Amino acid sequence: MVHEIVFDGPAAQREKLIASLYKSAFPAVAKYVSKMGGSFDDAKDVFQDALVIYYEKAVNGGLFLNTGEKAYLLGIAKHLWFKKFRDGSNNLPFDSCEFDIADEADEQPSANKLMHYLETAGKKCMELLSAFYYHKLTMKEAASLFGYAGERSATVQKYKCIEKVRETVKEQSLAYEDFIE
């Protein structure tokens, strides 16, 4: 079904039509922009631009739609949002960004606190985890060193060790901030 959209007529009628377009189409545009990482203000900007395009096409010779106005406006908004990111118009020049490296360095996890929770898994686990993560042994080498039947057995044991640590952290409801000195 193709229908023509006409914006001529009294100003009050145009305002009523635009208000109804806002009510019907803006929530879908706002949801899309939000899903794509944009803010409410971004959604308003994109919708305004889409509405202007829609209006201009309707005024310049009539607009014939195969879909409803809501779907058409959403399609324009999606195109505008994609174009905004493709063109990189939302990116700041790198030299305008400020980085505070001192703050980053201050918030490193404490080795002592980490070791305390790793030790809750037990001595054998600490040795296995150390061999794999610190000494960079393969699971096959670790299996041979610790007397496991095979590489798969060592992998399962390493997983169990990590789960012990995770469980301790979970039981105590710890967050990343709890490991910062």
**What is the approximate shape?**
elongated
> Into which percentage range does the β-strand content fall?
under 5%
Instruction: Please provide the count of β strands.
Output: 2
Low-confidence stretches: 91-106
Number of helices: 8
Main beta-sheet annotation? 2 strands, antiparallel
Kindly, what is the distance between the CA atoms of the first and last residues, rounded to a whole number of angstroms? 66 Å
Radius of gyration: 30 Å
Please state the average pLDDT score.
76
The number of distinct structural domains comes to 2
Oligomer: single chain
Write out the strand line-up for the largest beta sheet, numbering strands in chain order: 1-2
The computed structural class is mainly alpha
Give a short summary of the structure.
The protein has a two-stranded antiparallel sheet with strand order 1-2.
Describe what this molecule looks like in 3D.
The longest helix is centred in the N-terminal third of the chain and has 25 residues, at 11-35. The protein contains eight helices and two strands; from the N terminus they run E-H-H-E-H-H-H-H-H-H. Mean pLDDT is 76; it is low at 91-106. With 181 residues, it is mostly helical. It has two domains: 3-94; 103-179, Arc Repressor Mutant, subunit A.
